[in-house]
Specification:
2 helices; globular; four-stranded antiparallel sheet; Transcriptional Co-activator pc4, Chain A; two-stranded antiparallel sheet
């Protein structure tokens, strides 16, 4: 059974890693995604690129008009630009902490 330790937690969600099996859980909005490091990087890149593609959008910032294919069969995320920005901030903070952790625990 997994025992999760939180990397990041804010009012938008949280990201945690299991201390036993290293699986990552991402909590955001109404969903929970469980993934490995490679899948985390895929979702990080997907959300970051979505943010960059929609930077200039000022209209409908709160409308859930951005659809993201999660690559899980039949599962898409419908997000607003505000959601994308908040999700990206959460993922970026966790990614930074994961990188620091790799450096700190890298064998000499």
């Amino acid at each position: 059974m997994c025992r999760f330790d939180k990397y990041v937690k804010n009012h938008n969600g949280s990201i945690a890693r299991c201390l036993k099996c290293n699986v990552i859980q991402v909590y955001f909005g109404n969903f929970i995604m469980t993934m490995n490091d490679a899948s985390f990087m895929k979702i990080y890149n997907l959300i970051s690129n979505t943010r960059l593609q929609n930077l200039g959008e000022l209209e409908a910032r709160d409308q859930k008009i951005i659809t993201i294919n999660t690559q899980a069969e039949g599962l898409y995320l419908a997000l607003s630009l505000v959601d994308v920005n908040n999700f990206c901030d959460l993922l970026q903070e966790a990614k930074f902490l994961m990188e620091v952790e790799k450096i700190a625990y890298k064998p000499l």
